[in-house]
Amino acid sequence: MNIEKELAKRLMDDDESGNRQVAYNQEISFYELVASGNMCKLEEALKTIGSTQVLGVLSPDRVRNVKYHTVILTALVSRFCIEAGLEISVAYNLSDIFISQIDAASTIDEVYTVQNEMLRTYCHKMSDLSKNRVVSRHIVVAIDYIRSHIQENLTVESIADSLSLNSSYLSKLFKQEMGITLSRYIRDQKINVACNMLRHLDESSLTIANYLGFSSQSHFIQVFKKTTGFTPEEYRRKNYHQSWMNGEGDQ
User: Fold this and answer.
1) If residue 120 lies in a helix (H) or strand (E), which one and from where to where?
2) What CA–CA distance (Å, rounded) separates 98 from 114?
């Protein structure tokens, strides 16, 4: 097969480039969701993933086609989790286990069952990773609340209210168990999400600022530069589409 000729033909036939960009952005957001360790949002996503999933044709055999796509999904999820801090040996061994199970599956339903177990396992590992230094239930719940409400204008007071705790007590407990202030943790989590969006998506600084609940674009830029040493646009220029495929970007 002449690869360049086939590519040119497919590009000419492909009149859905806009849809493909949307699909790409959705895929990246899904990988980030798994790597964030947010089990609640993952369960919500799994309710619709089967009905909304549009697969390219990698094989004329339907079962094999789904297998190929699920293997790719497993590999990408493992890499995103590594980038988010999962131990490399754990990520790779999980990938090997699930790819072996995918290979052994004989029906599409069996493949999707393995796929969902794989997604839940990685997400659970990432959730545990963020909590392994935590002792008290209050801090576990506070971290879960921050992850689930990262798009809101989070404050120490709003988190304390959600847990029915005194804000001073929660602040002291969080610093004692996590080693950083609660305000710093909130800021770092928002900036981590912003970095991932800047690396993988085309969203503007204003859109990201609004998405993450910053009071203004200028406030977002100020906090981002204080945290990373770069403005959002400088960070994007240095790191856009940098990932496990071509080396880590500079943060």
Assistant:
1) helix 108-131
2) 7
Alpha-carbon distances of 31 from 18, 95, 101, 119, rounded to whole Å: 20, 14, 20, 9
Closest C-alpha among 135, 137, 152 to residue 193: 152
Answer yes or no: pTM beyond 0.85: no
Does the pLDDT at position 112 exceed 50? yes
Per DSSP, the chain holds a count of helices (H) and strands (E) of: 13, 0
pLDDT digits (tens, 9 = 90+) for 172-185: 999 998 889 999 99
Q: 202: which residues sit within 8 A by CB, 6+ positions away?
A: 21, 25
Rounded Cα distance, 184 and 129, in Å: 19
For the chain, the residue count is 251
Pick the CATH number of 3-131 from 2.40.50, 1.10.1660, 1.20.120, 1.10.3470: 1.20.120
Domain boundaries, the chain: 3-131, 137-239
Both structure tokens of 25? 């952005």
**C-alpha distances in Å from residue 92, one per residue of 39, 191, 204:** 21, 27, 34
Report d(CA 30, CA 35) in Å as an integer: 9
Q: Which CATH architecture has domain 137-239?
A: Orthogonal Bundle (1.10)
Where do we find the tokens 């849809």? 19
